[in-house]
Amino acid sequence: MRGRTWLGAALVLGAQLRALWLAAAVEVHTAKEVVAVNGTNQRLKCTFSSSSPVSQQLSVSWNFQPEDLSAHEPVFYYLKEPYKPPSGRFKERVTWDGNIERNDVSIIIWNLQPSDNGTFTCQVTNWPDVYGTIGEVRLRVVQKVNFSEIHFLAVAIGSASVLMIIVVTAVIICRQRRRRARDKRLEVADTEW
């Protein structure tokens, strides 16, 4: 009987420790999708929550997976201070914009290009909370509308509006002339009788 009691107690203790371990994990929060205009700068927001206070060993790593699913690329790393990437597509194009005291580990990507389309991941470890979720942000870079396209669209809409006004005015004038002519004919016919 004692063996079964110990086994039961060990199973219960294991389940409780597992529940505590899951509750102690770091939770990372990001926007699921961000749309930005080509050539602009975009803040990729990432915040976290942890059951432990922020430690000196807190680390943050941002990575990038292009849409063509080629290899992951490091974007940014933080451990006690921000570290920019020494090489790669984001060299000189990424800036730390977080505040550790506010559980914010966001970055800014400068001068976005269509080649930046893909998924950015934000991972936070806060000792002793070393496990947790990984935040993902899908970035879509769209082409901005050129002034000539806007100008062409405005001219087309304006021309169509002016043409409609001219047609409506012409129809109204024609109807009024016909009505006057008919009224005049009726007057002449009445005077002849």
TrEMBL record:
Residues 1-25 form the signal peptide. Keywords: Disulfide bond, Glycoprotein, Immunoglobulin domain, Membrane, Signal, Transmembrane, Transmembrane helix. This is MPZL2 protein. It is found in: Membrane. PROSITE patterns: IG_LIKE. It is a single-pass type I membrane protein. It comes from the Eukaryota. The chain crosses the membrane at residues 150-174. GO terms for cellular component: plasma membrane. One of its GO terms (biological process) is cell-cell adhesion. The gene is Mpzl2. Belongs to the myelin P0 protein family.
